[in-house]
DNA sequence: AATCATTCGGAAAAGCTTTTCCGATTCACG
DNA sequence: CGTGAATCGGAAAAGCTTTTCCGAATGATT
């Protein structure tokens, strides 16, 4: 350690000296081990406090063979999905005395590999991969051995990998059932690109909720408001119009609502609209505000934290779990009183 | 180290044994030090590769007194501003052999304090604070001593703190000058809450660009599309309407554009509109697409990385620097041919 | 006075890596 | 043959912390 360069200029040896005890006694006092008088412990604690002593985690980790650190690797360059997940993770890991550090690979495999390398060098106790789409991703280009690894809002090509995801299909069922409960009988589904697994699952949830599916009411396009506008225009041009639209995400839903407004269609009176993601930037700015499905990403993060802790403690975890989503009704489906 | 638990099951001692050399020789070979025959070095490198050896960063950092790690502490729970900054930082720090790890405090001072504590325990070589608004923030509740600390897109109550920020005022000048260059003569400014420093600076840039300022053309409100809509409605109700509107951010601008459309005002023909932030979620979805001012956050991150490296190497850095923004013209100000 | 219990000191060892230093060996050259 | 250079081994030390073990000192009890 270069002295005077960092806030941690004092070692345990300094604390011991300051407290007038031996090095071993100082350690025992701070770690509540050994048989020391309370007076001796207090003396050491006071000395440590006065010196602003902070144990050197590096030395501790080296000695105990565990760093109590977890790395989170994300390829979500916008942070939209990762941040709530991280928040939930951090809460749970912190309660277990584990620090969480994130690296953002920005969808660059080389960068990701490098991050893994760095985290392994730091001897993290586990790794979590997450991103901005839940489809399978390539196995990392480094052997991870028995290190606990968990995919959250993400999956792996590796068979048996432990994965935790929102229940897209269930969420879509919620949305469709909500529209049905409102008496809607002709529900369209405007969604994203077919190569997203989430798109397929949401579509499956929609289809499973209907007694009869009309393929002409299912439209795929890009994740954008513009696509929502175009799709709505197409639906309006049909001989028989839908009386509700379940959009694959909130951006598409926003576009749909805008096109309906442009065409003097009243939402939800004439056509109800519900999105997916519960992205407040979209739901709140839309006119009327969007009903949506929340993926509960923070809860997903909490569940992931608990799961990883179990893995770190030696339990075996594998396979994919899906956590339920939540319906968030707003004025785009529920008329305001 | 608990064996078989992690990918790093081999120590340098194992590599030496595998290569049939001494521990010291193995170290010298991997670190390109000492006087070894190339043949000996190659033998050690091969052994290390075969065993998948990765040096223990903890032991290295302990020995050399430097961790080559930097902590990034953000209070931006959405990641919108932090992610591009992080990307720029990571690029520059990586080139200098330094790892970057992020903790997200989600605007909770207790959580932030805890993160600082964790990072200090890991003996980071420097700390970077960033967030979602650039105003002064309280001094962290922990003494950081001489540890290099840099505020990026953020400022500190601590006098002389090193800060790096986008040039809000300059960006506002760019936006206003752009409108002037298009022949606009009556430019309004619809912006965010007065308690944001960025709001005050952007207003100052706007005012400085005009030979004559009409206070009635400056409206403050919340950061939302709804406020943009309301403000536009107010401006349209004025005896003399503006022929251009400079919005404090893209969300407000989006709202303005929508209200103009609702009132059959053609953008940019009748009234040109420019935003700030260049947030693609807004700029691209708007009709027409929004001209905006980009804060160059990735570049800010790169500059911050370079600055922090200098600080880590012992140079003194203090005070606030501002990096220029970039004008991004789109159809909301420039008519499409 | 002797014995036992409590408390602490301090030495040693371990974790892993780097670096230095000294000694030993081998080979080449004068 | 003697000397010097190149090469490597291996021991030691350092970084910081934790833990164990044994010995020493003190106070209380018999």
TrEMBL record, chains A, B:
One Gene Ontology term of the molecular function aspect: transcription cis-regulatory region binding
Record keywords, A-Z: DNA-binding, Transcription, Transcription regulation
UniProt signal peptide: none
Entry-linked CDD domains: HTH_LacI, PBP1_sucrose_transcription_regulator
Descriptive protein name: LacI family DNA-binding transcriptional regulator
Pfam families tied to this protein: LacI, Peripla_BP_3
PROSITE patterns: HTH_LACI_1 (PS00356), HTH_LACI_2 (PS50932)
InterPro entries assigned: HTH_LacI (IPR000843), LacI/GalR-like_sensor (IPR046335), Lambda_DNA-bd_dom_sf (IPR010982), Peripla_BP_I (IPR028082)
Ranges where the HTH lacI-type domain occurs: 10-64
